[in-house]
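Re-run with default settings, no changes from the original entry. Doing this only to confirm the output is reproducible before filing.
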Amino acid sequence: MNACYIKNHNPKFNYLEDIRIFKERQDLPKELYNLDILDGSPPCSSFSMAWNREKDWGKEKKFREWQELQILDTLFFDFIDLAKKLQPKIVIAENVKGLMIWNAQDYMNKIIIAFNEAWYKVDYKLLNWASMWVPQRRERVFFYAIRNDLVNKVGTIDLFWDLPKLNLEFNQKKITYKEIESPYREEKWYHIPEWVLPYWEKIQPWRSCSDVHPKWHFFQELKLSPDEVLPTLRAVSNSYYHYKDKRRLFDEEILKWWSFPLDYDLNWSKAIYIVGMSVPPLMTYWIANEVYKQWICNL
């Protein structure tokens, strides 16, 4: 992921290391202090509805990317520690919807307290990517915080709740699969696997192969619908199939699914992995645009 990012974006500063090490560095360049925006996406699997949630809290785990064993549910607080050190004007962080549900609400309260202790006013909002011109239905919770000494400059505080006011209402046109799909071409790699094909042939669009499997297997193998916004993309494998053609999604469809430019250099990686481990650029644009118009322009 880091090599791919460097190849496409050529960052002035690049650090490939654990945030727990990075936040303790004493040799960071002055340009990284007092940033306009510090943005981050702390790992979210501990709070995802698709995983073990509470059973994994406080336990050391590994990612597929070969990091060291670590307790994932504390990394959000390491990110806030970094904000406390660098003191950017604004901090943006996103995470899974599951962070707002059930026992995870206690983590939400701790996150808010940590932001306050780092000298920031913070609020959060649940956003759906489909309302932001990203052709995918996915809800994520976004935290937005502004440094205490800048609050009066932009008039952001709700006097009743002591929270920063930032309008993040997006109602862009929803984009369905048929609007981004590519014409059929014969490429063997994209064929539906022979062990999945019999079930794909029996199901209607927008259904899982598990619906017709005698043991409910292949629940992640989905036949897409031309008239629906695409579902949440998983970075593990390309198990999304065309509604009519016997094929998986082509790479350019996956790139458009995530609002990536079609000339993005994947650096020999699979499109499903690179985009699935990333945040959609178009979604980032819409949020950054509102932060700029409502807050940064007034600083």
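Residues 2-172+280-298 form a domain with the Rossmann fold fold (CATH 3.40.50.150). Residues 281-294 form the longest helix (14 residues).
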